[in-house]
């Protein structure tokens, strides 16, 4: 049994197996999940990590010991679990550590309809109840619930294909890097029958990630995809993370595409179907996103970073779509949940619906130059942020807001400085009208932060 406070994060459960997360802990969490949510049936899915099957089985034992039935969906991506929760109207748990290294595993939990369970919506209560169960030894109980198996992959693929019209797209050469993660399981079924010549990289399910980490936000992990796109003359490259809920795009030149550009593109497509709708974007996305949303008659709404904030704001506003800088994309038509696969289908539809190359299409949605996220190790985060505020407070035309960390805006530029929730880090994102202005702002902030 590990320290539950250490592995229960703001949005999910994640820790090293078995030191921090073992089967006994997973079983207690399963019992606590049923007690806290009141579930009489839950759906469970898992990724390809070696520890995922035994941990999911342990969670199931805990759940049925409290009288709940469990639908075992088996291997799946995280958005397949959301599909299961939404289509079956059941609370669910996905066993995955997403893009983390092989020694990690974890749980993403939701209520029926894929409503997320986070620190403010039940996760703390599940943690505390699981800890109490472990302390009291009240783990074992009669297996009152039943377990059934259900293959949901085809239903998931069919549902996604109803949300994007791909019927008229031209033939495309597509390279997909699954990173030995769950994209290797879902892509072949979702792409089946499309006019796509698929080049598959690392589709073999392997939770040891023998080729590279399944984390496409890191540029090094995109190099094989970028090379393959150029080698085969592909129209587009797609990279999925370990649990395939995030998708990163590479254009026909082998260039990495900003998730902000993808957000703007998909937003415009969704606004064409839902005129005047609300679109959510977090405060790290490019300022081009709210500009383009407004130009197409939509209502842009800015939120904090983090899927629980995005999903809550989407539900509150009835937003049709939401996007994050981290390549998470959220859809009202998908129970307000995120699906990298659905975003990928939108990009394929946009690309295949006309003859221009992807780089030209996305140039319409790219207006500024961004730094990307830059981390600095800082012992006293608050003091560093104060120094930055004082540095810029004396300048004309500068504004501040603290929706999430410190955002400073000036003529033609902005930056955001956010503390990590789990590490002594400050995360900087900066954007400006051109490369020189962005670099000047970026370097000035970093100099103050690291002084």
UniProtKB/TrEMBL annotation:
Alpha-D-phosphohexomutase alpha/beta/alpha domain location: 6-120, 155-254, 263-368
One Pfam family of this chain: PGM_PMM_II
Gene3D superfamilies (UniProt xref): Alpha-D-Glucose-1,6-Bisphosphate, subunit A, domain 3, Alpha-D-phosphohexomutase, C-terminal domain
The keyword Metal-binding is annotated on this UniProt entry: yes
Keywords: Isomerase, Magnesium, Metal-binding, Phosphoprotein
Names of required cofactors: Mg(2+)
Record-linked SUPFAM superfamilies: Phosphoglucomutase, C-terminal domain, Phosphoglucomutase, first 3 domains
Domain Alpha-D-phosphohexomutase C-terminal: from-to ranges: 373-447
Family: Belongs to the phosphohexose mutase family.
Protein name according to UniProt: Phosphomannomutase/phosphoglucomutase
Organism: Streptosporangium fragile
Source species taxonomy: Bacteria, Bacillati, Actinomycetota, Actinomycetes, Streptosporangiales
